[in-house]
Design a protein that fits this description.
The complex is a heterotrimer of chains A (217), B (212) and C (226).
Chain A lengths: L2 H19 L3 H19 L6 H27 L2 H6 L5 H30 L6 H26 L5 H12 L1 H16 L6 H24 L2
Helix pairs in contact in A: 1-5, 2-3, 2-5, 3-5, 3-6, 3-7, 3-8, 5-6, 6-7, 6-8, 6-9, 8-9
Chain B lengths: L1 H22 L10 H31 L2 H33 L7 H22 L3 H34 L12 H34 L1
Helix pairs in contact in B: 1-6, 2-3, 2-5, 2-6, 3-4, 3-5, 3-6, 4-5
Chain C lengths: L6 E10 L2 E11 L3 E6 L6 H8 L7 E6 L2 E2 L4 H7 E4 L11 H11 L6 H8 L15 H14 L4 E5 L7 H16 L3 E5 L3 H5 L4 E6 L2 E6 L11
Parallel strand pairs in C: 3-8, 3-9, 6-7, 7-8
Antiparallel strand pairs in C: 1-2, 1-4, 4-5, 9-10
Classes of the chains: A mainly alpha (217), B mainly alpha (212), C alpha/beta (226).
Chain lengths: 217, 212, 226
């Protein structure tokens, strides 16, 4: 049985459901926008607050988006069906991860545009920002996929999701903020690429292993 | 054996307390407040020790599915939350008179707060899971994840603070004279002994609860 | 020593905290047999099926499907066994065709079987409509087609007749007969003895998690208590 076929099938399914329902991008995106708006309002909307506001809104939107994929399986009673197919359950992790990464990239792009408009933020250093978004998305996607599966069988799971997700992803937040700042000012990036890479490695290595242990009956 | 361990720990804690209150001179800058350090630092060490135990026991439980590892892991997670909470509390009590603020965005404090939150999450996941067996598995997974994630959090916070505005207050600047070092060392050993005793007792209690 | 029969359990038990859902169940389902699992609500029928399907770990005892241990060799069991639970487990946001394509991809079957299976289930007219617009019976038929796609040796059915019309009931019968012909085994839990009688060869009765009886007699109505 080819793993890539299973991974692609799960990712395609998640993205197709998302495309038809838009039930992760729209609510999570609107929520992220609301966060940006509120942060802009209290910080006075100066350009120096823009990177922090952007990454905080991305992280909070990611909490909602990550939970959505797992909720969908719960509503339809399909979670167990997926798990009982033959083949490695790591494939399910990677499929879910891939779909979540696409959703997160869309969210990040949307929120970046909103942040440029609201905060009058500089748009220089697009290459740095895109690379940072890709790296951050890979790690956030893995953390989100794992934690959403983890809280799926927990009462008040959606409430526990941010409690686990936000402290665990602090490195992405900090690295994202600093990389956005250095992209705008052209300053050296320091250790931040390293932080993102280490965070990604950690969650991409540990994520699928723990996912398999977490989802079994 | 058990009585010996409890008695020995009590004795160590008493000696530690004596040294902290009467055996150590007041600090030139911090005055009498330095005595809080004799609780704060050992509590922090114990919190990380408990987190390490929760990590090891959690990983072993996920691997072997032996409930005895879960009893240890549960004790470790609870004590990690307890001691990191105590660290935060004593850190604030110390920070207010010495630094003039309850809270500083010091990397160690933020890391301890993250540790505290993750282990609170670990305990909640266990209690709120739809089935006790799943709760054991989920909390073990969180304990493993938290322990691996916390170093990354720590260094990112260190760099976030230092590379931007320069550390306002750094504990590393405080060089410890021998008359402070001895009480600190004794207290650290006493707290680790306390941690071991509490771990053993909590694990035993959990196993008794589990057999019901 | 691996048990030879398709489904074997030995002193199988499952607890949910303090609640005992299954206790000391020893069961043997031979090749080409369909076992009817009877018992009042809450007697442990679904739990037993879920343990056999590897959806739930047993807390006591052991179980084997086609000789593979459901705990230590769960991945082998999932290759040979299909489980249809009380919920059809199909995506309302996908069409019937897409649902089956997903299943084909996930269990490594060729996609060309999908159209044929939709025909078998009588769903070719609605194949490209979203499942959201399907009735419960149509969703259950789709789930039956999915199970057939998996070509299992052991089939576990939990209340398969719910929401099905006569034609749908015939599909369940066909599925079960096909597996029996391939020397597989079926375990079917239901309260609908009337419809089950046509396809089952043996019966087992559960009460409060324990096996009261099992045997081949008694299908005519009352359950044997030998």
């Amino acid at each position: 049985m080819k793993a890539w076929r299973r991974v692609a099938a799960v990712a395609r399914k998640d993205l197709l459901l998302e495309w038809r329902g838009r039930d992760a991008v729209l609510p999570a995106g609107s929520f992220g926008f609301a966060v940006l708006l509120v942060l802009g309002l209290v910080s006075g909307g100066g350009g120096e607050a823009a990177p922090s506001a952007l990454w905080v809104s991305v992280l909070l939107a990611a909490v909602l988006a990550a939970g959505r994929g797992a909720d969908r399986e719960g509503e339809e009673g399909t979670r167990e069906v997926l798990l009982l197919y033959p083949g490695s359950r790591e494939d399910l992790f990677w499929g879910r991860w891939l779909a979540l990464c696409v959703v997160l990239l869309v969210l990040a792009a949307g929120l970046w545009c909103a942040q440029v408009l609201l905060f009058d933020a500089p748009t220089r250093g697009a290459g740095v920002l895109i690379l940072a978004a890709l790296l951050a998305t890979a790690g956030l996607g893995a953390a989100g996929t794992l934690l959403a599966a983890l809280v799926a069988h927990v009462r008040a799971g959606p409430l526990l999701m941010p409690l686990l997700f936000l402290p665990a992803t602090v490195p992405v937040l900090l690295a994202g903020v600093r990389l956005s700042e250095t992209a705008a000012s052209g300053a050296p990036a320091g250790p931040w690429w390293g932080v993102l890479v280490v965070f990604d490695l950690l969650f991409l290595l540990v994520g699928p292993v723990l996912f398999e242990l977490v989802v079994e009956g | 054996m058990r009585a010996f361990a409890v008695g020995g720990t009590a004795a160590l804690l008493s000696v530690g307390l004596f040294l902290a209150l009467w055996g150590s001179p007041p600090d030139a800058y911090q005055g009498e407040y330095v005595r809080i350090m004799y609780v704060h630092v050992p509590a922090a060490v114990s919190a990380y020790g408990a987190a390490a135990v929760a990590f090891g026991a959690g990983a072993l439980y996920l691997w072997r599915r032996d409930r005895r590892w879960d009893f240890v892991g549960r004790a470790g997670a609870e004590l990690a939350a307890l001691f990191s909470g105590l660290t935060l509390l004593t850190g604030m009590l110390w920070g207010k008179p010495v630094w003039g603020v309850w809270w500083a965005w010091d990397a160690r404090l933020v890391t301890t707060a993250v540790l505290f939150l993750l282990y609170v999450g670990c305990l909640l996941v266990r209690d709120l899971a739809d089935d006790p067996e799943r709760g054991r598995r989920l909390s073990a997974a969180v304990a493993v994840l938290a322990f691996l994630d916390v170093p990354v959090v720590h260094y990112s916070v260190v760099w976030f603070r230092t590379l931007h505005q320069g550390p306002s207050i750094s504990l590393q600047g405080v060089k410890l004279a021998p008359e402070f070092l001895l009480p600190l060392a004794v207290n650290a050993v006493a707290y680790l002994a306390l941690l071991s005793v509490l771990l053993a007792e909590r694990a035993r209690l959990a196993s008794l609860e589990g057999e019901r | 020593m691996r048990p030879l029969d398709p489904v074997v359990t030995d002193a199988l038990g499952r607890r949910f905290g303090a609640v005992v859902a299954l206790r000391g169940v020893g069961l043997r389902v031979g090749e080409g047999t369909c076992l009817l699992l009877l018992g009042p609500n809450g007697s442990g029928k679904t739990t037993l099926l879920r343990v056999l399907a590897t959806a739930l770990r047993p807390t006591e005892g052991r179980a084997w499907v086609c000789g593979y241990d459901v705990v230590s060799e769960g991945h082998r069991v999932r290759e040979l066994c299909a489980f249809l639970g009380t919920s059809p487990g199909v995506y309302a946001g996908l069409t019937g065709f897409e649902n089956l394509c997903l299943a084909a991809d996930l269990c490594g079957r060729p996609r060309r079987q999908v159209a044929e299976l939709l025909g078998w289930a009588g769903l070719e007219q609605v194949a490209h409509r979203l499942v959201r617009t399907y009735s419960l019976g149509m969703r259950r038929r789709l789930a039956l087609a999915r199970v057939r796609l998996q070509e299992p040796r052991v089939l576990l059915l939990d209340e398969p007749f719910v929401g099905l019309d006569e034609e749908g009931t015939r599909l369940v019968g066909e599925l079960v007969t096909g597996i029996k012909k391939q020397k597989g085994a079926v375990v079917l839990a239901t309260h609908d003895r009337h419809r089950a009688r046509a396809v089952c060869d043996a019966v087992a009765e559960l009460e409060s998690g324990t096996l009261l009886s099992s045997g081949t007699a008694g299908l005519a109505g009352a359950v044997s208590r030998g």
